[in-house]
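U., I forgot to send this yesterday:
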Amino acid sequence: MQKRKMGKNGPMTSAIGIGAMSFTNFYGETSEDQSHKLLSSALDNGISHIDTANVYGGGLSEEVIGNFLSMQGSQKDKLFHIATKAGIAVDKNSGCRYFDNSPAYLKVELEKSLLRLGLDYIDLYYIHRRDNDTPIEEVTETLASFIKAGKIGAFGFSEISPTSLYRAAAIHEVAAVQSEYSLAVRSPEMGLVQATAELGTALVAFSPVGRSLLTDKPPSFKKAQAISFLKSNPRFNEPNLSLNIVATAGFRKLAAEFQMSAAALAVAWLLHKAPHIIPIPGTRSVDHLSEHCHGASKQLSPDEMALIEQVLPIGWAHGDRYSDDQWIGPERYC
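Result:
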């Protein structure tokens, strides 16, 4: 597995990681045993980065990872570069989400994450969503204090704009920015790819296979309706879903001509866009994980990259990447 740097002064980690939202039932039913088999396979394939969050399954994802680590003995804190996130809170009475970047909240949630993971230290701690009532400069100071306290190794932000990144980086080095980026979502190319490269910040790309649109088996309408997030997502509602499946047919054909799966080609394309990009595909399947690893090993020529973007040019997707409710939190900048 090739390596990439997690930030200007950060450690080397695997070129792809695992998005551990899939360790909950978010995209379909799974189990702890299934997730542990996936983590074992990740180690066998040289994958060293895991990305999770305190809200994934209400802490379940972190617990699953922590239980796996607890079975690894004295090696448990040496196997993976682990990232988790906080900033999305849930009101106990109403069940409604809100965002909290206050020092008190972040400190409490960090301790809870450490407890669930069974660790004394987290390699990378993200602000999951910005709280607009707390200036990013203040949030950055809070995160820097966690580094000084020896609780985290580095920090980052999820779904922020280039301008917010520059403001934070003026206070302290930002190791990573997490953003949705794939052949289906090209908006990071309008400033975020450039800003992260300039600052030496890793761009950690979630949903690199387009929430399964860029795979050999995109979801049927029935399957999409059974998954809460996709049920309300514009790209997975009709007529958009059918149009998107037709639009990606040529990509699946091209991947077959390259003798690889569509998911592998999607990962390979993203890795070739810039050397500071680290995709974190999520999966519940060891076979699918193998496809992602195949993509990480694939070399693409400039002509092949151009051919891929000819088959799926910028703007091919039907429907927005988020619904109105899903857009609450991510920073729009273009």
